[in-house]
Each structure stands twice: as structure tokens, then as C-alpha cells.
Specification:
By secondary structure, the protein is of the alpha+beta class. 40% of the residues lie in helices and 21% in strands. It contains 9 helices and 13 strands. Strand 9, helix 1 and strand 10 form a beta-alpha-beta unit.
Amino acid sequence: MSILFGLPDGAVTRRGRATFELDDGHLTATHRWRPRGTLLPGAEIEYQFEVRGADGTAHTSTSTVVYIDPELPWQTQSEGLVDMWWYAGGDGLATDAVSGIHRGLDALEEDFGLELQRRTRLVFYADGDRMRADMGRGTRSWVGGVAAARFNLIVLYASEFEWGRSTLAATIAHELTHIAIEHAIGEPPRAIPTWLHEGLATVVESAVAERFSYEDIVDAAFEADRLISLRGLTGSFPVQSGGALLAYAQSNSFVKFIIDRWGESAITEILGAYRQGASQDRALRQAVGLGLNALEAEWLATLDQSDAAPTASAGGLFSAPAFALPLMPP
């Protein structure tokens, strides 16, 4: 007897052996699974059992299970295509979360024509250390949230003692942007540059509330001659929280520059080009007529630093299957 399992709406990716018992005509089957690699809390797994006998092969109906910390008293609530899970914070957290969902999705649809296309789960942790432990080894200490479109899942640290009401709403808007971008691009997954993902997410976030003073961060980096090359922001972001925050700020500034110069429709056109399989430079040229190097030079000129060459930030880089959000600084 076997078990077939994988992510919902996708091809079955794993097969395992199931143990079973037959008692008075009832068949009971079990399978113990130790996940390898990245599996975020809140991920939904679809499975069915396969029984082979002398008369052929039969399958049970498909069922689902949520991979979640079973020791926490989870509460749930649905809002449109978003399912919220939380265990602390009460009705106040749910109210603030609903505000972030509506304001974020409204901004995405009105300004950029983006929307969720699949049901998405939003999981809140009141304990950041526990959240990062449940997310798995290698999760950085500065990570306060993560969005993973392949799981249709957002995991957030939401402590009532360290987050303000508007900050939580802005954070939700930020992470929903990542999911909406990936839904819009479709399958197979495209290599959207991180500066575009995070830049647009911070723009939508800032339309709800200001979490960071991105403009001041970019100005300070210019004065210290430590801007990061935009090609360095195409993939992974710096490991250290300070370097990561600068990467977010530069991405925000660059995307705002494109919007200010060519309008929100330029972002929509860039994403549309990616959906058709275009490369980064081709997508930019289709939308605004410039490749990344020329576009970066024009952006730098608006900062009065057209003669300054951006330098790579110090520190290693990390690769992740999702988009991480930094915690608010103390």
C-alpha cells in the first residue's frame, strides 16, 4: 500500500510506503513523513492512498492536511480569498489583519491591476523565535515575515507588544503583493528580479502606512558611498539586517522612480513582459525603452549622484524559496 502526496493543484511529487491494518472489514492506513528541505508552517499537503491487489489498483479520495505547529491553539477566519490563522491577539488582531487585506488588495488592483488568483493562507505568530524555529534552520534572526507563492502562504510575526495597528496592516499589504505578483506571472515560475518584487511590495506597503523611511535610508547610503548595484539586487538580498534594509530601500526608490516617470502602467507592462518569458532587460525595454544599466543611471541622476558608481554591499548572500520581510528596527 502506498501514499501519494504533494501540493494542491499540482502533480503528485512524492510516493511513500503506508502501513495498514485491516479490522472487521475496515482498512486503516498511516504514513509518517519527515519533510526535507523547506516546508513553511501553514502549508497545505494533498494526499491519497493507493491500494494494489489481485483485482487491480484503487485510490482513495483526495484529502488535505495542514502542516502546522499542533501545540498552538489556532483560530481561523476567512476574508475573501485569504484564510487567516492565529493563536494570540484576539479579535483586535483579526480586525487589523482584515484592514491590511482589503487596503493592500485594493491598492494592487486599482493601481497595478493585480489580484490574488488562488486561495491564500495568512499565518500569524505572536512569538518571533518560535516562528523562525518552525520555518526551519537557516531562517535569519531579522526575518519578520515570509511569502511563498508556491504554497499560497504568508507567515508573519505579529506581536501586539511590538507591532502597531497600522504597521501590521502595511506588512500584510507588503506580503500579499508578493503572492499577487507570482499569481499574475503564472506557470512556469519566472525569475522576477528581487528589486521589482520588493520594490513594488514596499510601494504598496507604504500606501497603507510607513514602516521605514526608505528615502532617508537611500540618502544616507549615498552619503556613505555604499549603494548596492541594481544588478546585485536582481537575485538574493544581503544577509545582515542593515544590508537587507538598504536593499529594500533601494528597490523602493527605483520602483518609485519608474512609476513617477512612466506611471503605474509601466510596472504592469514589465510584469506582462515577464509573463511572456522576457528577460530583465527586454522587459524593461518593452515597457520604458531602457535596459537596466541605462535606467539605473537615470535613477542615480535623480539622486544627484549620476557620477557615483554603486558598490556591492559587504557580507554573504542567501537564497530562499520565498520573500522575507525584515522586522521593525528597535
